[in-house]
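Why do we care about 3D structure at all? Because function follows from shape, and shape follows, mostly, from sequence. That is the central idea of this module. The next example makes it concrete: a single protein chain, its amino acid sequence, and then its structure expressed as tokens.
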Amino acid sequence: MTNNRPYGIHRLIDPAGTTEFMAHLEAMGFHDADPVGVAVDEEQVILAGEKDVYILPRRGDGNYARFGLAAAIMGASPPRLVALDATETLVGLMGALAAPYPAGEFFLRLSMCMLGDLRACAYNTGGAPPPTGISLQDQAFTARLLEPQLQFEAPNYYFAVSIPLARLRAEWQVFFLEEPLDWWVTYSDLWLHVLRRYTGDPTLEWLFTSGHDPLTGLAGLFEWPPDVTKAVLLWHICGRSVDVMAGVDASLVDRLPDNLPVVGDQWNKRLPSLWLGIITLMQAYQRDRLARTLYGRKLHGGLHPGVASAHTILGTVRDIMEVAAVTFHNNRPGPTVLVRDIETDPLSGLLRVTGTGPKNTEEMNRWIETLTDLATLANPLGLEPLKATVVQAPRVAQAKEALTSISSGDLATTPTTLTPPRKAAGNISAGIRTPKRRPTRRGKSLVDPKPSPVTDVAKSCGSSPKRNQRRSSRTLT
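And the structure:
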């Protein structure tokens, strides 16, 4: 049978083939700077070098080769592995290779060998996602071929956050898949914090610094229900494009008012800085043919400018949650503490990082204190600390009760009173009692962000804010 692929295929099914495989590891770059592509399923493990692909069966005589690979991973010169999806591959390799060694020790060594994730690399660089529906050999070879090229364009976020995130997700699936939650950290109104940061809107800034709920305050200003206010805010984030908005959250499109041109005019009069800030982001994208999140994840040119502004703002929300999760994981007291999940729907009013352990009461109390400090320190936005709530839930029933309490909006440590502003005043501060401000901690996040400077949105942006206000079809263009 003719092999039309750009690599040779070697199937290792006996000890002689294993010996040949072990001798050929050096040529594959197993012990130097060249990465080795890897893929795995229930039947086989695939390794890909520059010109050759090796198939290691998971049954029968293929055990010899697999044990040799496991020994190399545990050895003094472990390989550099790259995969199409690092999380799925780590989980699969644990099932295929870990049997001769203690599971915890082997996973630690294996995860440190996994240095490339093609899917995460494309996510960071704005490149095309990896192909789907290809064979396992092609998966390993594609990862080996493309990831080393793409990583030169990747921001530091890829190495400092995306790769550790793939490892911690794999660790959870391997060891604690069925464990109940022991704790979670909740961030409220994060998307509005990021919107305030990029637009410099003084009304949003005042609502945050005075300790009030920003969505309720804006709803009172326009006399809209909160869900309508949220929909109008997303419409602005998406460049006042209903099509782009439908691609982000189609459910909110139905909550938009019918008279969007009038809504835009009202917004220009009462909150001009917010829309001017969005225009600034869209103009920068059209000029530079590139948009970045706060941590540098890219979106290349050629798309609707509203897609770029949504990528910058909502993508930054996802970045902050992932940075928080990796920060917690990197500062855990031991392997009994694991990050379980990250809720990354950027428009959610409450975003959570959840986890398990430790089970000892004294150790748990110390960990909760550490989490409380870290939740505030992992804040790249400045001005004021993110509103974070740490919940300890040592029992499932208590966790559900705490979740109900959080979902009801009982987040603020200092109660506030908010009444609708007077109609005639035209000022969001009307009818709001301002609580005393308390000192807060400040610190640095895991990754040093290098955001692009946002120009003064008070200056004229040279674009008409009435463009693109007609509602059209709800298909993302």
